[in-house]
Amino acid sequence: MTTNISKKIYVLDTNVLIHDPTAVLRFQEHDVVLPIVVLEELDAAKVGMSEVARNVREVSRVLDGLIERANGEISQGVQLPSVDNNKKSGRLYFHSQAVKSPLPEGLTRNSSDNTLLGITLDLGKIHSERQVILVSKDINLRIKAHALSIRAEDYINDQVSGDPESLYTGMAEPDPTFWGKLGKLHKQEQQECYTINDSHVRAFYPNQFLYSETPQAFAVMLRRRAEGTVLDVVKDYTQAPQAVWGIHARNREQNFALNLLMDTDIDFATLLGQAGTGKTLLTLAAALTQTLEEKRYSEIVMTRATVPVGEDIGFLPGTEEEKMGPWMGALEDNLDVLHETGGRDHGAWGRAVTHEFIRNRIHIKSLNFMRGRTFLKKFIIIDEAQNLSPHQVKTLITRAGPGSKIVCLGNIAQIDTPYLTETTSGLTYAVDRFKGWAHSGHVTLQRGERSRLADYASEML
Fold first, then answer.
1. Does 260 lie in the same domain as 132?
2. Is position 195 within any domain?
3. Around 457, how many Cα atoms within 13 Å sit in the side-chain half-sphere?
4. Angle (nearest 5°) at CA 183 between 223 and 239
5. 3-state class of 412 per DSSP?
6. Number of separate domains in the chain
7. Does residue 225 belong to any structural domain of this protein?
8. For residue 365, what pLDDT is reported?
9. Going edge to edge, which strands form the sheet with 152-153?
10. Residue 188, in any domain of the structure
11. With contact defined as beta carbons under 8 Å apart, do 157 and 430 qualify?
């Protein structure tokens, strides 16, 4: 390796590459080391149709492309392509030597994790003038590394910076003097709106909701249009006459969410919130209204990550939709509510026919069969999106064709996928990356509306 005190050496664990197949390209001017044990683990996981297997095959293609560029000369490392033309890039090294550093008693050499610890120790001794860092998504491995005085870090390239509590909420309460800067009220596209100088809204994002509680409740939605910035007066869905499929908003955040869900100019929406805040119910109500009544979409497509909370129930019989059935209890529960509120009572037979008609317009899809598809004029709902990686979220969002709308729902406090955290979840990633786009919107729902028992349990347990 070339000697440069300022350049660090990063030893990558297998789970980093599975999490991000292009991870070797993300370390700027620093050198990257891939031990042979990591390549062995990748080779063992390459077979199958799972997301892990697909990511492993993508890693293999990335590495193969780098080796081809080096014409097979890898003994002195492979020059990594520079993401930023103004900065030099590091080199990729494949480590094939046996571990020489003695490991503490109790750590077996048969473990790949312990092999990574030994390799990091060896490199630290050989390159004592440089920082050698083990990068892993495995918390326990990082803890063992720290216990051995080895520097270890999480892979943070795709993390949303900052505290999860400071994540973009999609709304803000400006200083009271802000409202005095609004221009004259006028109508645009059948909606009341105000004009405002761009300099007064530089701190806000497109489609962000701005509200005031004093002297009276008032809310607007910031729009950036070709003719300038305007503030649309938020539609009031809290009153029964403005109900969406029989559902009306019970609080300010739900009203903001319905404004996003019913807006024809919003192609991508994200709703965050704890259990019972109404994410799924509001989304289904808006989807049914725009699909069955307004004919804006041809059908509703719903999917979710199939991550069990307890023990896995094993293989499931039936078609794709039947296999997804046990995971879609929330869909059926909310459909029951919407069926009761969405129309007149025509007796038991009429209710059964109506329910069957509504259910036939909702198609349940598995994430495993989303690749290569293009959805035209579909209302796509991705539930439990907090359990998806950024790569999976990208795969799903890029399935949208002309006339489609995607809504991601989730609660980042309930992540069940290994190696994902509140700052690395694909849902958090999507919220952060889309907040500046003129055709996307986000709302964090804060108040539970399920029942007083559920609200008390969420707060106290």
1. no
2. no
3. 9
4. 60
5. coil
6. 2
7. no
8. 77
9. 78-79, 91-95, 31-35, 9-12, 132-135, 152-153
10. no
11. no
Answer yes or no: do 258 and 147 share one domain.
no
Closest by CA position to 424, among listed 146, 17, 14, 19: 19
Q: What's the CATH number where 294 sits?
A: 3.40.50.300
CB atoms within 10 A of CB 290: 20
Give yes or no for a contact between 27 and 48, defined as CB atoms under 8 angstroms apart. no
CATH code where residue 110 lies: 3.40.50.1010
The percent helix, strand, coil of the chain (3-state, each to 5) is 35, 20, 45
Tens of pLDDT along 192-241? Answer: 899 898 888 989 999 999 999 876 678 999 998 877 889 999 999 998 88
- CA–CA distance, 438 with 283 (Å, rounded to integer): 20
The amino acid present at 59, given as its one-letter code, is V
Structural domain boundaries, residue 66: 9-153
Do both 269 and 133 map to the same domain? no
Query: Do residues 216 and 234 make contact, with C-beta atoms less than 8 angstroms apart?
Result: no
Which of 153, 174, 204 is the last residue in one of the domains? Answer: 153
Residues of the chain with confidence (pLDDT) below 70: 1-5, 83-87, 161-163, 215-216, 306-332, 339-355, 368-369, 371
Place of tokens 């077996």: 108
Judged by DSSP in three states, 282 sits in helix
User: Which amino acid, 260?
Assistant: L
Q: What is the pLDDT of residues 345-392, one digit of tens each?
A: 545 555 565 667 777 788 787 776 676 778 899 999 998 899 888 888
Tell me whether strands 31-35 and 185-188 are parallel, antiparallel or unpaired. Answer: unpaired
Q: What angle do CA 233, 234, 235 make, to 5 degrees?
A: 115
DSSP per-residue letters across 248-273: --SSHHHHHHHHHHT-TT-SEEEEEE
Are 303 and 427 contained in the same domain?
yes
> Among 94, 121, 153, where does a domain finish?
153
pLDDT at 5: 65
283, 407 contact by CB (below 8 A): yes
